[in-house]
Specification:
A six-stranded mixed sheet has the order 2-1-6-5-4-3. It has helices at residues 8-15, 18-38, 42-47, 75-84, 131-134, and strands spanning 49-61, 66-74, 95-106, 112-124, 138-152, 157-166. It is an alpha+beta fold and 179 residues long. It contains five helices and six strands; from the N terminus they run H-H-H-E-E-H-E-E-H-E-E. It starts with 7 loop residues before the first helix and ends in a 13-residue tail after the last strand.
């Protein structure tokens, strides 16, 4: 009978490193945020954010050679926005995000992480300009990146900042919710 080598120590030191666990926690938090946003579970999404959270939606405009800021909001601002969402004249077509985390960098003190993710958002039309033609169609809504800074705890990660950097330079009507 052949003896199987004991590699448990090698596996524990390579795959279970503290920084890799933190990176995994950050990725999981980013993906969980996308699920909450897709499902319009706004308060659960906001619960992933620290009290001093700052959220921005920006896009570069080559025409004016300047950043355009669509939204700059604090945690408190977002609480108000979420509370008012049902009162907005909004396009109720659901959105689906496809998020891919590209990089996760852990700070030297291990307290914060910086992540860059790609995001592609599809809109599933309930109505359209010609509702008898457009309804039921899915189309590309937005393309961009998430630039996130997260605060790391022992078993949690909370968003400190999120900059949504859009490739598009036009947000469609009724786009009042967090992207």
């Amino acid at each position: 009978m052949m003896k199987t080598p004991d590699i448990s120590h090698a596996i524990a030191t390579t795959s279970g490193s503290y920084h890799e666990l933190q990176r995994s926690l950050v990725r999981d938090t980013i993906y969980q945020a996308s699920i909450f946003l897709d499902d319009q579970r706004w308060n659960e999404w906001l619960a992933l954010c620290a009290e001093n959270f700052t959220y921005e939606i920006k896009s570069w405009s080559p025409e004016i050679n300047y950043d355009m800021t669509y939204l700059h909001a604090s945690h408190k601002d977002l609480e108000s926005l979420i509370r008012l969402l049902p009162k907005h004249n909004t396009d109720h077509s659901p959105l689906t995000r496809h998020t891919s985390v590209y990089t996760v960098e852990i700070s030297s003190d291990g307290r914060t992480a910086y992540a860059i993710s790609s995001v592609v958002i599809f809109q599933h039309l309930l109505d359209g300009t010609n509702s008898h033609i457009d309804s039921g169609e899915s189309r590309l809504f937005l393309v961009g990146k998430y630039y996130d800074q997260l605060q790391l705890g022992d078993s949690s990660a909370k968003f400190l900042t999120r900059e949504v950097r859009l490739m598009n330079r036009r947000l469609d009507k009724g786009s009042h919710w967090p992207i």
